[in-house]
Amino acid sequence: xxxxxxxxxxxxxxxxxxxxxxxxxxxxxxxxxxxxxxxxxxxxxxxxxxxxxxxxxxxxxxxxxxxxxxxxxxxxxxxxxxxxxxxxxxxxxxxxxxxxxxxxxxxxxxxxxxxxxxxxxxxxxxxxxxxxxxxxxxxxxxxxxxxxxxxxxxxxxxxxxxxxxxxxxxxxxxxxxxxxxxxxxxxxxxxxxxxxxxxxxxxxxxxxxxxxxxxxxxxxxxxxxxxxxxxxxxxxxxxxxxxxxxxxxxxxxxxxxxxxxxxxxxxxxxxxxxxxxxxxxxxxxxxxxxxxxxxxxxxxxxxxxxxxxxxxxxxxxxxxxxxxxxxxxxxxxxxxxxxxxxxxxxxxxxxxxxxxxxxxxxxxxxxxxxxxxxxxxxxxxxxxxxxxxxxxxxxxxxxxx
Length: 401
What we know:
The structure is a single chain. By secondary structure, the protein is α/β, with parallel strands linked by helices. 42% of the residues lie in helices and 15% in strands. The chain contains 14 helices and 14 strands. The protein has helices spanning 3-16, 60-73, 88-100, 112-126, 140-149, 161-169, 194-203, 226-229, 258-267, 269-272, 279-294, 297-315, 335-349, 378-394; strands at residues 26-28, 35-38, 43-47, 105-109, 131-135, 152-156, 177-182, 207-211, 238-242, 252-256, 328-331, 351-352, 355-356, 367-370. The strands form 3 sheets. A 7-stranded mixed beta sheet has the order 4-10-9-8-7-5-6, sandwiched between helices. Strands 1-2-3-12 form a 4-stranded mixed beta sheet. It has a 3-stranded antiparallel beta sheet with strand order 11-14-13. Helix 2 runs antiparallel to helix 11, helix 3 (88-100) runs parallel beside helix 11 (279-294) and helix 6 runs parallel beside helix 7. The protein is globular and about 60 Å long.
């Protein structure tokens, strides 16, 4: 087989479909977020697609904590948590996360993806007879964990409690079940009816697993997510979150009962055999969580900026998809046009807004996904709306002959 030829052919196909993904050459400038320097075009740009939703990645309390930790404890963690990679900071971070979600315990992983893949594969694989029932739009990390467990699985229609009940009613009553869903879905921006889904799951004796990665830090009086905001934080069996979005650093976690967390800690290869987070990252995350537990200013400003962006985009007649959250998707519906618009925004308007296409979203629903932050100004919003309006009106594609 011509392996190199195969690789190049498949890459050429991605390019022809407009789905080839090129990394940006961005350099975030500390203290001036959402500005960054683009080394490819040699100019400063405004970033409109960062998952650092609150700008905590450059907040002084986070930076100070990380600098102090690295000078006191060094750069790396030194190994896995079980051997030499555990520090007092890791323990403090897990205690803070458990408190954030009102749980007995928490367990930190190296990323949100790893947390989902590891926790779900472990629970579904090691509990005898487990059946997993998953929302149709769950994240790739959840799908990977469920698939890797090789457990029996069923898919319920997105956010549809009646369909979930229908599926659960058809399963053997004596077998264990795990219902998995997210709170905020990151591409459409819609929000799950957490309490209702938990009601259905509990009626059939199922555990529930809630992914709050796009909600922790952003919703609830202490940043505990949609479950906290809606007064149902005690309902899901497991809450999973990330340290890399609203908290601005890196890592993932689960929060649950002490026994469940200890069970995953003791059985999950993705935890047992992975080097732990460097102490500086643990310190930064700890500082961000503590800050956002007591400060509402970032969340209030964030929601105000999101509302303003949506209002201005709709007033301009742009194809904004309905969204219940801080995610603002603009529907383009064609991969090549979406990429061309993204390129034009960068080159003509110095606006960095990456195209979202398959497999992240279904073919035909390609979009530009806008994520406002508290640090975007009115002038930034005006420039975004004007740039999008111009690009939408000018970027067209030649039809194939």
